[in-house]
Amino acid sequence: MNNTRTRTRYAHAATVAGVTVALTLATLVPLAAQAQPSAQEIVRRLEANRTYETSRAEVTMIIDDRFGERESTMVSYSRGDDEALIEFTSAAERGQKVLRTADEIYLYYPDAAELVRLQGAALRESMLGSDVSYEDLTGGKTLLDTYEVTLDGTEQIDGHRTYRITMEARDRNVAYPRQTVWVDAELFVARRSEQYALSGRLLKTAVMQDIREIDGFQVPMRTVISDALKRNSSTTIRIDSIDIGVRLDDTLFSLQELSW
Amino acid sequence: MNLFTIAWRNVGRNLRRSLLSGAAIAVATMSIVLLFSILEGMKTDLENNLIDFYTGEVQLRNPEYGRYEHLNPLHLSVSDAEAVRSRVAGVDGVTAAVARLSVPGAVFRNEERIGLQAVGVDFDREGDYSAIGDYLVAGSLDAVTGGASPDGTSGDGASSSGPTITPVLVGNGVLDRLGIGVGDTFTVVVRTALRGTNAMTFRAVAVADFPVPTLNDMAFWAPLARIQHLARMPGQAGEVLAKLDHDRGAPSRDAVMSAIRSAEPDLEVRHFTEMETTYSFIEMASTAYNIIGLFFFLLASTVIVNTTMMVIFERRREIGTLEAMGMQARELIRMFFSESLIIGVLGALAGLIMGVGVALVLSRVGINFSDAMQGVDFEISPVLYPIVNLRSTVVVFLFSVVVSGGTSYIPTRRITRIEPVAALREE
Which of B162, B258, B270, B417 is at 20 to 30 A from B298, Cα to Cα? Predict the structure, then answer.
């Protein structure tokens, strides 16, 4: 279970709708210091940038595959680093919920008489057929706990100066054994990320766009994720509205809240 | 005394050698008869399984489905399935038609993902089509369909506010894989036709022992309306399957297919023999077995060739004498050829009787291939019952006679090279 939880929190930011919001919110960071920070410092600031108390966001997930484009809408709530609840509002999935607690992921379906608990390999299932897996939603240790990080240098991404950080997993039982992240050198928010398998094969790519300052956080309002193992497929996560630091009911992230 | 009588008497002159030659033909004939019986049994079994549980005899589906089949494109469905089914059932030459909706799904237990296939069917119509009730080993179809409300939902286990628990029929392997018993529930997550996900809870109230292991391990059958609801496909089906009338006087297959195509011009209409299934593989294998059979006979015929040549060499003096007495070479050839032919016919007949006998016994007790078929995903039952096909049996007999006779003709031609004077001088 710990291994499952030891998922890259960076990937959350890249891939998950509501949780993406929660995990990618950035503190308003002063402009980059004159001296180039270390890889650890960059990742620490990246993580600090997306650590917040609570949030509520309305999100649209646009899945584009060989059969065309379709949209799913959802409301996402998050509290701290480990708790998140996604409630689907689009007609095709209305009423369905995904609850992430500190340890597990539960799926609620109005037509099912019991909750579906996902663990282990089951977390690799695609969420709504998108390029996002439930594994991408899992929380756990910090990036620095999970990965050895090194700074490869600086690169320009979409006209922005970024630090290119390579992350090698300390433990093999993580979703992505290796990641490369391009962190904005001024805002300390990710501009792009690539996730690799142990073999070195590219698994996923995430591109963060339309980064806006909201309530003091730098928020990528649009994230485009491509699963390299799927052809003609991409998923765009668009944040339509977001409130940070909202008051949330204490029971919102409980299993009881998912009952019928 | 005519040549055939002399030949018949000569066969008995060295009975042991004649028996040896005949036995080779007999064993070859028996093997081929048995092989073809098993193959016929396999084909019939496969045909029944495909028609009842997989492709139907005639399948109607969305013409685009096949192109994306590997992606499970549920949205490429048959709309207004009941209307289509009804029209197809009304075509002259169609004896039964059903609409089905198969949706792959998964049950998540601990860290395991257990793949299942939800099959939505109309149980009342399946009685006439697949005789599903005949495969029940526990529970009853009434338990599956009982209490169904007009929209196909069941009140079983449902509360006024909670979700409905749908009673289903499961393959007996499903219970083992899920680690549950009759009466227990399981929740299946599926991808919907809207390309989202949905889940539904089912209760195993009936258990079937299907003839195909994969069905037993993977499938559960539920009321069509519930699976339509699960997959977000109201009124739709993945396919409509039809069975044709094969009685004498019934319309021809082509005529029925043409009539169905005319009735449903927007759907793809295929006979199961036109599909890329295991059946086409077996058909292909049949051709291969025919060739193998030919080699079997050729191999056995070498014994006759050998015997005939030995006989000719041993009876050179006799041949010389007969030639000196005025017998023509072609009459000698006919005599020796007749000897070989008699051995070939008797051997083939003996082999035929033995082959048919063994096949008939096996057709009752069956041949259990369960161990050999472990992990093999074929639509073939693990216990096969050979079927003796009269036509193929007659063909095998004639074939063995022709091959053994034809091959023995070659050495008898050597007789023409024997000089009577030289042959008479030999000790």
Answer: B417
* Sign of the dihedral defined by the CA atoms of residues B253, B254, B255, B256, in that order: positive
Task: Give the CA distances from residue B126 to residues B133, B221, B223, in Å, rounded to whole numbers and listed in that order.
Answer: 9, 11, 11
Chain A positions with Cβ closer than 8 Å to B: 63, 65-67, 70, 72, 88, 90, 92-93, 96, 107, 109-114, 116-122, 125, 127-129, 260
Structure confidence by residue, pLDDT tens digits, B321-377: 888 888 888 888 888 888 888 888 998 899 999 999 999 999 999 998 877 777 667
B contacts of A118 (beta carbons < 8 Å): 108
What domain range is B302 assigned to? 3-49+280-425
What ipTM, to 2 d.p.?
Answer: 0.77
Kindly state whether residues B258 and B317 are assigned to the same domain: no
Same domain, B67 and B197: yes
> Would you say residue A23 has pLDDT above 50?
no
Q: Report yes or no: B187 at the A interface, CB cutoff 8 Å.
A: yes
pLDDT value at residue A259? 66
For residue B286, give the nearest of B54, B49, B44 by alpha carbon.
B44
Tell the CATH superfamily of the A2-240 domain: Lipoprotein localisation LolA/LolB/LppX (2.50.20.10)
Rounded to whole angstroms, what are the CA distances from B227 to B114, B219, B374?
Answer: 18, 13, 30
B197 CB neighbours in chain A (<8 A) are 93, 96, 109, 127-129
Compare all CA atoms of chain A with the CA of B160 and give the residue at the minimum distance. Answer: A260
**Summary mean pLDDT of chain B:** 86
Considering the domain architecture, whether residues B289 and B143 belong to the same structural domain is answered as: no
Query: CB of B106 within 8 Å of any CB in chain A?
Result: yes
Q: Looking up tokens 């399935």, which residue turns up?
A: B81
B205 and B218 Cβ atoms separated by less than 8 Å: no
